[in-house]
């Protein structure tokens, strides 16, 4: 038996998404910007996909901008907002546990004269709203807080942040790459101005995503060239990829998200109860309640996470020791460092298990048995 338990890094392509990509690749090869029949057909398919994604968030269709994924969406939002609003102030607020797709643009903006406040987190990986209030200033122009953390699964207090910023000039951006398709998100109700998502995190294709931009936000084009995406993102749209993304999104109805969540919680219970029954010493990293159901960050005191990953890989079981975007990096998780301190052994004794499409209870039991056998040795 084998098992893929690294869905927080990327997800397998859903068969229906693949079928939609193949359909579009075979039948709709026209350029959506062309005015002839082939182009008009492609443009129609493009707008149908845009409608699906807009409906999933309860926003207007033209507020959806197609991108190459979460990194482009984050960079477009953060750098675009900062540069266009610098006359109103140069202060930005984010958190210490953001994905590198947010942290690296922040570092770039610091090099351009902006001041960035990185909110700390407690040992459960949660920020304090009072810290956010204290950090907020008259010259704060942008606040970027991820919807859910990719390493712990923690859900951040997005609704409360949106309420705090309601009367403030700051634009509110959230990296929802890990959360989209797992929980219902309503930007209008939550006070979110900009939201980034990536198809490969919800069983769509890699290399495609979208950025929600509220009509209330003025955002200059990040990629310049043609006039695609209402002059907001140059470049011929990846129609097969966008169609596959929309099909994957359409399968994640509110009922489907509830059903999936219950299934993943059952898997987590199977795994942790098996560890308990075997007398394994373990702890959960992150918020035990306010979290995404499919992500488990587990610490095994005294056991190297690199060793665990290697031994499980030999059994064809895929887990992670952190964000896939830091793969090959021997540095400990910056998220766990923010939670426990840079010298804490937790950073080198923790693994991430993330469930998703295709996983079965039998696979989870195999993972549990394999983990126990390795740990008991």
TrEMBL record:
Pfam families, sorted: Aminotran_5
Stretches of the chain forming a coiled coil according to its record: none
E.C. numbers: 2.8.1.7
Cofactor: pyridoxal 5'-phosphate
InterPro entries: Aminotrans_V_dom (IPR000192), Aminotrans_V_PyrdxlP_BS (IPR020578), Cysteine_dSase (IPR016454), PyrdxlP-dep_Trfase (IPR015424), PyrdxlP-dep_Trfase_major (IPR015421), PyrdxlP-dep_Trfase_small (IPR015422)
Keywords of this entry: Iron, Iron-sulfur, Metal-binding, Pyridoxal phosphate, Transferase
Top-level taxon: Bacteria
GO molecular function: cysteine desulfurase activity; iron-sulfur cluster binding; metal ion binding
Alphabetized SUPFAM superfamilies for the sequence: PLP-dependent transferases
Ranges where the Aminotransferase class V domain occurs: 4-366
Protein name per its UniProtKB record: cysteine desulfurase
Species the sequence originates in: Enterococcus asini ATCC 700915
